[in-house]
Design goal:
Blueprint: E1 16-20, H1 34-40, E2 44-47, H2 64-76, E3 82-85, H3 92-95, H4 101-106, E4 111-113, H5 118-126, E5 131-133, H6 137-141, H7 147-159, E6 166-168, E7 182-190, H8 191-196, E8 210-216, H9 220-232, H10 235-238, E9 241-248, H11 254-261, E10 268-269, E11 283-285, E12 288-292, E13 297-299
Parallel strand pairs: 1-2, 1-3, 3-4, 4-5, 7-8, 8-9, 9-10
Antiparallel strand pairs: 5-11, 6-13, 7-12, 12-13
Helix pairs in contact: 9-11
Length: about 300
């Protein structure tokens, strides 16, 4: 499939963010604060019923049918301009085979989220649609220090992909490996969730792509397992380069990442401030980006 993704248009003030909960439930007391947070960004909020649950499984925000219905309803709703996921956790993979892909293509609305939402972002990308790998209201915005993440996301949504934008790392990272400047669609997200999508029809082709990965609470042997899965599936060889975000709340995985990625002799830009933790900069998944490791720059 050609790398031809729908644009991520600017979301002007007053646009409506449809809040869905395709994965886990919010902690008590957080959901009630979300509308005011969205309104402080200059947008309108529309919360869909599954955000409030409950589910017979306590790790899901609501039953599969309700979470799937919310996703479809948000796509169909003419009032909703973009879909904002409430939080991650787990649950998106359970919805994968029930999502109406024709409906998704007919209503190409940006999807915003990360972590377990990687499953949905990958599906968006497979269908030629772009999305934002970005902080979410019930897991990032209301955390200590999360206000900056919310403001950064608001600026990205207002800007969209126009005009051309460049982000730069302040400091070099020992895992980075300079190489010629590379262009390719930025794909990926949470490493463990992406690996769980192998052998499903939910992942986009990665030939010539820049693969972005981050993770949380995954010790080195587990990171090794996921990267070995990707190697055996041919994805590491197929990629044009790698962008590495934060690997947090676990033992340092740098040696494992180097062991898998450095022998490929492809550009690696490491230490990107995206993923679990702060700061969590928004990244456009799907569109072609320009990665310059020597300059520590990512442009789109």
């Amino acid at each position: 499939m050609p790398f031809d993704f729908n644009p991520l248009p600017p979301l002007d003030a007053g646009a409506c963010l449809g809040v869905i909960a395709p994965a886990g439930p919010p902690k008590p007391g957080l959901l009630e604060q979300v509308p005011a947070q969205i309104e402080a960004m200059g947008y309108r909020a529309k919360l869909f019923p599954g955000c409030a649950g409950p589910s017979h499984l306590d790790f899901l925000a609501a039953p599969d049918a309700e979470r799937l219905s919310d996703l479809h309803a948000a796509l169909l709703d003419p009032e909703v301009d973009a879909l904002l996921c409430l939080r991650g956790g787990y649950g998106c993979l359970r919805l994968l085979d029930g999502i109406d892909r024709a409906l998704l293509r007919a209503h190409p609305k940006p999807l915003i989220g990360y972590s377990d939402i990687t499953t949905l972002l990958a599906l968006w990308n497979r269908e030629g649609l772009a999305g934002w790998h970005a902080p979410m209201p019930a897991s990032d915005w209301l955390a200590a220090g999360g206000e900056a993440d919310r403001q950064t996301l608001a600026a990205a949504l207002r800007r969209g992909l126009e005009p051309e934008w460049t982000e730069r790392l302040a400091e070099p990272h020992p895992l980075s490996r300079p190489a010629p400047v590379v262009h390719g669609p930025l794909l990926g997200g949470n490493l463990s969730v992406w690996a769980s999508g192998l052998a499903t029809d939910g992942l986009p082709p990665v030939d010539g792509a820049i693969l972005f990965f981050e993770d949380i609470s995954e010790d080195p042997y587990r990171v090794d397992r996921y990267l070995t899965q990707l190697r055996l599936a041919g994805q590491l060889d197929a990629a044009a380069g790698f962008l590495l975000g934060r690997f947090s709340e676990a033992a340092d995985a740098s040696a494992v990442l180097a062991d898998h990625l450095h022998p490929l002799n492809k550009p690696v830009l490491a230490g990107w401030p995206s993923g679990h933790g702060q700061p969590n900069r928004p990244l456009p998944l799907g569109p072609v980006v320009r990665m310059d490791v020597a300059a520590r720059q990512l442009s789109w």
